[in-house]
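Side project, low priority. Logging it here so it doesn't get lost.
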Amino acid sequence: MHIAVFDDNIADRKQMERLLKRQSDRYQKEGKEHFYIDSYGNIEALLRFPQLYDIIFIDMCGEESESEHFKNGLDVAKILFEAGGMKNVVMCSSKYNYRELAKEENFYDQLQFLDKAIRVKDLEECLAECERRLGSPIPTLELRGETETIYAREEDIICAKADGPYKVSVFFTGGRELSIISDIVNLYEECEIFDSICPVSQSALINVMHIKSENFTSVVMDNGMTVKVALTFKGNIKKVKQIVAAKEQV
C-alpha cells in the first residue's frame, strides 16, 4: 500500500511516519502488504503525482501557506479530488477542526478524520476503513503530456484523435484535454485494460459509454465532439457495446 503524509510541521510528520511504519510491521507479520511511505512538507511536491497513493494524510497548520490558494489542509484535499482517482484522504486535525470545515463546505463524506495527537487505535481503525474503501483495484491508465500527467479511469476517457504522426489529443470528462507523444495504435493497446474503448478509424478512438448519438459516418460524443467513423471500423462500435452490456449484466 502506498501512503503519503503531508504535514508542514516536521515533528508531526516524523511522528506519523513512525506510527505508520509500526503499523506496517504489524501488517507484514499478519501476511498483509506492507506500506511504502513518502512524506512531504511542500504542497507542490505532493501535487506532482498524488494518484500514486492509496492513502494521503494531510495537515497544514502554518500561519502562512506557500500559496494564496491554500489557506489550510482542506484546500489541498479539494485539489486532490479534482485531480481524480482519490479514495482515501485523511484530515489530521490540530490547529484546524477539519470536521467542522468540511461540513461547512459540504465536503465531509469524501474525507476521513483523525485528531492529533494520533492514537494507535484510531489510526488502526482509519487504516481498516481505507482498505475497505479501496476494495478491488480500479484499472487506471497513466497518460503523460509535456507538463501534466493524468491518471485516467475507464469512464474518464471520452475520445482521442491523432494530431500528426506522433501526437494524440485525448479528451476527458470535465472538459479536460491532454496532448501526448504517441499514436492511436499505441494508445489503443494501452487502453486494452478497458472494455469500452473502441477504434473508429486509423486516427481516432472513442469510449462507447460516452456516445450521445451516431449515424453512418460519425458519432457525436457527450462532450459535443463529432468523431468520424471509417466504414471498415463501423462494426467495432456494436461489438464493443455488446461486450460492455454483457459485463454490466454479470
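Brief comment: DSSP finds seven helices and 15 strands in the chain.
Revisit when time allows.
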